[in-house]
Please model this.
Amino acid sequence: MGSNSAASEYDRVRVLWTDLNGIARGNVVPASTFDRQREDGFGFAAGVAELTLEPGLLENSTYGPESGDVVAVPDAAPPIPLEWREGVGLAFADLTHVDRTPFALCSRTALDRVTAALEAAGYVPRVGIELEFSVLRSADDGGYEPFNDRSSYAMDALDRATELIDDWTDAMTAAGLEVTCVHQESQPGQYEITFEHGDPIEIADGVAFVRHMLTSVANQHGVTASMMPAPYTGADANGMHVHLSLWDDALETNAFAAETNDLEFPSGTRPDGAGISAVARHAIAGLLAHSNALTAVCAPTVNSYRRLRPGSWAPVSIAWGPDNRSTVLRVPPHLGPATRLEFRLPDTSSNPYLVLAAVLAAGLDGIENQRDPPAPTTGNAQREEHERLPRTLWAALDHLEANEVVARQLGEPLVESFISIKRDEFDRYQGAVSEWERETYLDAF
Ligand code: GLU
Ligand code: MG
Model:
């Protein structure tokens, strides 16, 4: 992503970095001083990179008030325009120490490192992301209600949101993101937006931008865009599926593609016989082997586990299959040069840099160790006997804590801080008595 405009084309520039929770943080500076200031980076207390979702420092944080500054150093690429905010540009930043050595809690740097490890092994990754999210409006009772009462692919849902969709897609196009599709998802008020695949950092930056843009543009229109995974009880929720392919240096040969096929696709074998390669199978095996640990990163909130339930379009167990949406890992039917794996575990509340880093790390481990996947499933994996994905954030964090591959690739300090933040979040949830509990237990005993 990028544009040819220099900072001087803007009045102001926002500097964005993404914390471990996936929250966009940063500041805004006059464009006239941006170039001078970017040399020094934009400083803040290191502990800010380790915040919980509630304001305040994490208890027992690694970086307390005594830890001094780190700096957000904007990327060398020119800022991109925030089309809906006239005169404002946006720059993505890496976090470093004041002496420019990498800061352990920078998720963007972690993704860069894992991408480099994969490239050192001879594979250039290409990733794509599908973003599902909920649009809500104010309800008469003072709360929120879905923006519409439509479902999957309803054309009139597009009609009702024409101005929103125009502004979303214009903003993405202006920022250099090639929008591939917008559609109404299965639930009232739920939309999905996709854009062209690319290099992992470019795509993670794209997701950070789109999330900032969606909420900001929705507010301008007097509605709310939410990336909370499951806003409604018992309804399909907001996934953030990742598509992955691996290429040679020249981006000419897709290492996942094969000329012969032994997979049974529901729509039948392709006439040209194309299928997936041994490298793709090793990557699938790596992703499945680490799915339990990846759940903590890909489903990082208490609410995420309302999404991973049987009877929905989200995965519940560790299985894979050709064009099989009941599994955690679908092999889409687009083969040949378009061969890719779709990892369906992540939801929209997750940090896109960490999700991609964890996905690449798991795939790389499968390839390096020539892991073999179990047999693919053609049935409904939700109804078959497969290992269940962790059912709570706490259980997923236990798997992440025990996983050496993810810790080595993402960096142990980063994974440790992530686990502390998320255990703190779970404890707060665990300490709160819910409406469901009162309704179920109050007059039962
Ligand atoms: N909303 C579903 C999820 O949470 C996915 C629906 C689809 O297959 O696009 O993953
Ligand atoms: Mg979808």
Observations:
- The chain is about 35% helix and 20% strand.
